[in-house]
Specification:
By secondary structure, the chain is an alpha+beta fold. The protein contains one helix and eight strands, in the order αββββββββ. It starts with a helix and ends with a strand. Keywords: Signal. This is DUF3224 domain-containing protein.
Length: about 160
């Protein structure tokens, strides 16, 4: 019985992964569902002070609020198999807008590459997924590129809001 349960769970996970891959492939070639709104470009610029321990600041363009603070909640850390000097982190992020319009949520999968004793670069996909206020039902995707040196880091996320 136990083995059957595992097979069913794995089959469900594989179906989910295949569906996510199909959506990503369709997005890459510009295919959108018939009822989708026109995608709107956005940019989020993050400023990070690793010593502060509190919320960090961001500015944004497009259909997102102009500025606010954000909090990263790392969920998973993993070494990058076969390559030393790399780390993969899965991060839940909540962005809170200064203008009171609400907050929005992101899931980031970041590959960190250590470039020196106290420096690194990072890159990876990001998914925007709902929020509060004006951002209930928010859906989007993009790419995060950043760098860090010492106690300071910057990140630039570009992408599209699709709903």
């Amino acid at each position: 019985m136990r083995n059957q349960e595992v097979v069913i769970e794995m089959t469900g996970a594989m179906r989910w992964a295949a569906a996510a891959l199909a959506v990503a492939a369709a997005s890459a070639v510009g295919v959108a569902p018939a009822n989708a709104e026109t995608p709107a470009e956005f940019t989020i610029t993050e400023e990070i002070d690793f010593e502060s321990g509190g919320p960090q600041s961001f500015t944004a363009t497009g259909p997102l609020c102009a500025s606010g603070t954000f909090v990263d909640e790392p969920q998973t850390f993993a070494a990058y198999k076969g390559r030393s000097g790399h780390l993969v982190i899965l991060i839940d992020t909540v962005y809170t807008c200064d203008d009171g319009s609400g907050s929005f949520n992101a899931l980031k999968q970041i590959l960190i590459t250590f470039t020196g004793e106290d420096s690194s670069t990072n890159s990876g996909p990001i998914i925007l997924r709902g929020g509060t206020g004006d951002y209930v039902g928010l859906v989007g995707h993009g790419r995060d590129l950043g760098e860090a040196s010492g106690t300071h880091g910057t990140g630039t996320i570009t992408g599209y809001v699709v709903r």
